[in-house]
Amino acid sequence: MSTRTLIRGGLVITAADEIHADVLIDDGRIAALAAHGTSAAESFSADRVIDATGKYVIPGGVDAHTHMELPFGGTAASDTFETGTRAAAWGGTTTIVDFAVQSVGRSLREGLDAWYAKADGNCAVDYAFHMILSDVNESSLKEMDLLVEEGVTSFKLFMAYPGVFYSDDGQILRAMQRSASNGGLIMMHAENGIAIDVLVEQALARGETDPRYHGEVRKVLLEAEATHRAIQLARVAGAPLYVVHVSAEEAVAELAAARDKGLNVFGETCPQYLFLSTDNLAEPDFEGAKYVCSTPLRPKEHQAALWRGLRTNDLQVVSTDHCPFCFSGQKELGRGDFSKIPNGLPGVENRMDLLHQAVVDGHISRRRWIEIACATPARMFGLYPKKGTIAPGADADVVIYDPHTGQTLSAETHHMNVDYSAYEGRTVTGQVETVLSRGEVVIDRREFTGRAGHGVYTPRSTCQYLN
After folding, report:
1. Are the C-beta atoms of residues 221 and 192 closer than 8 Å to each other?
2. By the 8 A CB rule, do 226 and 172 touch?
3. In terms of DSSP bridges, do strands 48-51 and 5-13 run parallel, antiparallel, or are they unpaired?
4. N or C terminus: which one in the chain shows less Cβ crowding within 10 Å?
5. What is the DSSP letter of 287?
6. Predicted confidence band of residue 425 (pLDDT cuts 50, 70, 90)
């Protein structure tokens, strides 16, 4: 028997509107909305009523860039699909898009099936997959077509990590040409990995081994150069391009220039680039290792350009690139050699709160918050309007958000399976109170009531955000 739920009295915020409205949920979907106090709203009847007076009612977040259980650098990300999706729910995110990995010499299918197996029956919220292409060849190019038909409609390539994920320009061009014909979206890790490896080698030879050198060798100009090159290759191929984890002003400028030409070029940034900096990488006693990720954290002055890019829509999405490694036993693998520190930060639980803090601080509007965290990632990756909005027919992925309660972010209280917080001690205003996933309450007034296996795999259509 399905339960009808009524969320009453809150301010409903979507990317397009703000309205004091009551939301009726039936059979896991949004059934109707009506302005609070109207006869239409008064006619709603339900088995369960949630009072949202004084609260925001927002769509569940869509985090389009996570890495649960990712093998990397001789270890693996510390969040499983179970722990990671539970933490996502605590943070008001109800859909993740994770990355299945093709191993060199193996098929896309084999990699995708391995990730289906990891996630199946273990997720607390809904999930989908992108595909990492590590080995572009005739066979894998043909498989791209089959994956698009199956609902895996985006493919990530790396200009970084030679010997691991790296693709050369010819392979990138071929994959882009294929996506131009099959409707897939190419996602690019844009850093010049060949040049970076030279700088890493030279730094280590000079005895520069501390975590801060991770940021110093991964130069801003090498992110900008790779971003520029990816854009030109996409133009040659006639394909759309989505650049992941943009961290620096110069890379934003490359995206803005391309978009000024009317190109289908998109950019994502992450909370770590908006709120953290090289000051964190330089923390003493190897503490900086906690903040090693790629692209790396940048000097604080880059933050203004990222916020501006989010306001002008030269950056469209904020995802987390959630890829947690414990400080103890994992990050410590790089003591004495920064190049051996596993690259990645925990953040899936913090994104919605940090972006609400950006609203409080005046960087973005409330509707823009929902746009960059819910609606646009859903549209970019073919999940809209099932996900990313509150409208009749949409999945009832709904968050009751208290905009007034303050909280202190800390490893003591977070639910991610990692022994530190990248935002330890930071106070923010706003907190998730209750979360529904497809109409089922998974967080009930700050208590987890969900379960592993509630989350289902969600196939995607092609990008809905193209010019």
Report:
1. no
2. no
3. parallel
4. N
5. G
6. very high
